[in-house]
Write a structure and sequence with these properties.
6-stranded mixed beta sheet, Nucleotidyltransferase, domain 5, 8-stranded mixed beta sheet, alpha/beta
Length: 399
């Protein structure tokens, strides 16, 4: 019976998972899948390591995103693999605060500390932690490892993380943290294999999806990021506002908005959905639409990405490469084209055919900086960290 690592990425409407061999002897996951449509009509989809679709059906088990789904998911995985033994679980946890600068084996003290961080990531943290609680209840002897989206950004210079607020507030934890760190860490490691010279240089990684941010990486280390205190900061996203003048919030409070209504506005009604007038929060829908509001949302997204690339280049004293990743970054040749053309003044020269193929480098050989497409794999990064945190083999091969 093969021993495996379960990777869980639990959200409010979906639960993504992957199963990896615990000794990292394969260059692909055994299984990958997700339960989507949680809270509406849940759907269960599973692929094997070769990408072949194994299961594509309604999820009939009852329960919410964690307490009913996670234990039942383990049963389905074990049946699907003919008795695979899950020996540990690794979880994506969005916020690790200042205490957790690396993955950690979960215990009661760790969970209490992570619960205290829920107000800093209300859209994600409760679901991340609920999955851990669910496994602890049904599989109490199973080791679990929390892997943090904030950890990759730990070690920034003080000037990058400090707000211009009274020092006591900074000391109390009101500072910039940065997110999407598991994605950035994976891409950074993959870049060492694909372009080792560039990996030692100054790179802006663009994690563009429903949640979107940029990260400045110099010689494999995070220098700065567009996200700050919460995952609301920086770029406009699918339904999140991105960076916003704090005075807007004061004004909305004066108009009668309260905490809950502001939170819903900023997390669920803004971003591409809000700017497009409710057309969609999905970039594919906006690009396909002939409505001017949809075009305006796309224009704003591209403008802000281009502007922030320049900002992060300034933070590093220059830029040697730009890497696109995540849903939009990997899939939309048009968005990559528009961003690269907006950065032409930096010296980026797009290779149109390579961009359409989205295979590695997408700029001409003479382009300085270069631009790349590197698919991210947060689940693989979590599996790697889980093995390391539990003292296992130190390497899972990167596909």
């Amino acid at each position: 019976m093969e021993a495996t690592i379960l990777v869980v990425n639990a959200g409010s409407s979906s639960l993504k998972f992957a199963v990896w061999p615990d000794r990292g002897t394969h260059n692909a996951a055994i299984l990958r899948g997700q339960i989507s449509g949680i809270g509406r009509v849940p759907w269960f989809r599973v692929r094997n390591g070769d990408g072949d679709l194994l299961v594509d059906e309604a999820w009939v088990q009852s329960g919410d995103a964690a307490h009913g789904l996670v234990p039942a998911l383990i049963d389905r995985i074990e049946r699907q693999t003919g008795g695979t033994a899950i020996v540990a679980a690794g979880h994506r946890v969005v916020h690790g605060g200042t205490r957790f600068a690396s993955p950690v084996v979960v215990d009661e003290t760790v969970m209490r500390d992570l619960e205290d961080l829920v107000p800093l990531a209300p859209l994600h943290q409760p679901h991340n932690l609920a999955a851990i609680h669910a496994l602890a209840a049904t599989h109490p002897g199973l080791p679990q490892v929390a892997c943090f989206d904030t950890a990759f950004h730990n070690g920034h210079a003080d000037v990058a993380d400090r707000f211009a607020l009274p020092r006591a507030l900074h000391d109390a934890g009101i500072r910039r943290y940065g997110f999407h760190g598991l994605s950035y860490e994976y891409v950074t490691r993959a870049l060492v294999r694909l372009a080792p010279d560039l990996a030692r240089g100054r790179v802006v990684i663009a994690h563009l999806g429903s949640g979107a941010s940029l990260c400045a990486v110099h010689n494999g280390k995070s220098i700065d990021s567009t996200m700050g205190f919460t995952a609301l900061d920086g770029l406009p996203m699918g339904t999140r506002s991105g960076a916003l003048d704090a005075g807007v919030l004061l004004h909305l409070l004066e108009l009668g908005q309260d905490h809950d209504s502001l939170e819903h506005l900023l997390y669920h009604e803004s971003g591409m959905l809000g700017v497009s007038g409710g057309i969609s929060n999905d970039m594919r829908d906006l690009l396909a639409s002939n409505q001017p509001e949809a075009a305006q949302a796309v224009d704003l997204f591209v403008y802000r990405v281009v502007r922030e690339i320049a900002s992060l280049a300034a933070a590093m004293g220059g830029v040697d490469g730009v890497v696109f990743t995540a849903g939009i970054g990997e899939s939309s040749a048009l968005i990559r084209d528009r961003v690269c053309r907006g950065c032409a003044w930096l010296g980026i020269e797009l290779d149109a055919e390579a961009n359409l193929r989205r295979d590695g480098r997408i700029t001409t050989r003479g382009s300085r900086p270069s631009a790349w497409v590197i698919p991210t794999d947060e689940e693989q990064m979590i599996a790697q960290h889980t093995v390391e945190a539990l003292g296992g083999v130190k390497e899972i091969c990167y596909a």
